[in-house]
Amino acid sequence: MKWFVLLELVALTECIVKIPLTKMKTMQEAIREKQLLEKFLNEQSHSLSQNSDPEKKLSSHRLRNFRNIVYFGKITIGTPPQEFQVNFDTGSSDLWVPSVDCRSPSCSTHKRFNPQKSTTFLSLDQKINLSYGSGRMNGVLGCDTIQIESLVIANQTFGLSHNQSSGVLEQVPYDGILGLAYPNLAVQGTTPVFDNMKKQGVISEPVFAFYLSSRPGNSSVVMFGGVDHAYHKGKLQWVPVTQARFWQVAMSSMTINGNDVGCFHGCQAIMDTGTSFLVGPTHLVTDILKLINPKAILDDKQVLLCDAVNSLPMLLLTINNIIYPVPPYYYVQKIYQEICFISLQGGTELLNPSETSETWILGDVFLRLYFSVYDRGNNRIGLAPAA
Predict the structure, then answer these.
(1) What's the rounded Cα separation, in Å, for the pair 179 and 89?
(2) Known catalytic residue: 375?
(3) Is 272 a catalytic residue?
(4) Using one digit for the tens of pLDDT, what is the confidence trace for 99-146?
């Protein structure tokens, strides 16, 4: 379906397609909570809307969400279609799902693609090896038809996992990952899904956007080909991308109670829908946790009693001269009755060990607060308070 007659193309390019996402907690977080809960109990023994542009047709497909941890939605691969749940991830660029040939425990708990059952599948006989914060996969490349709601992408290269690291990937509620970062992060010689959407003319504008709701279930959305402005309040504030790899922008300050706690000389911030937390350099995150949680419980600076949340400070991030507040009830998650967890984590110094610049990852903690638009045509990100 690379070519369309003119009337079909015009009809398609007037569409914004919205894909529903589900929000769920990863098993890594569930295990973490269980460990904290057991420790606590042992120690305590008792104790959507209408489209704002009338000239554009709109179809809905919501993302699923579970307890503010991970968001994922449905795609199909092959002819006839085989259905998968994938994490729509702005922090990577490749599409992959488990293969029927995968024998790892992490594959056995998920749907697996069977190439022999697709009449449009083409084997590319090229091996791949991908690493993520949640684990690793290796496998081979194939090519087939991908469908996301009403969007059909022909001849899309994707990965078929033959081996996945056990643990987190074994327990995540989605089957694979659909990366939406820039093509130079993808496997060499491959074209990411979003780039093929543009090339094949199935979207009208080279734009996609995320509305990540805090509500459980299917109220979250990723939209392709335009923006439904009903999902945000006020005007979109545009920020130029500083490096066309990740969706990365310049951030000028990070303050708590008027004091700088990070980004002292300016820093870089990556908008990453595939990351649950706010992630930064380990030494700075450690200092922030000491500052905001001096009465940690369970010997863990990220854990506190939920009664203390109302007294925690606001975190203020300044991006392109706009201040973006992050209240404590967004950066703190309840994990069991009176036990809460601060969603800040270290580790960005490992992204580029040779670089001295400070980098933060603004994951779903931030992106639930702010509707985000990713404009590849102008290499910019739009942010506005979520509706």
Answers:
(1) 5
(2) no
(3) yes
(4) 999 988 888 889 999 999 999 999 998 999 998 766 788 999 999 999
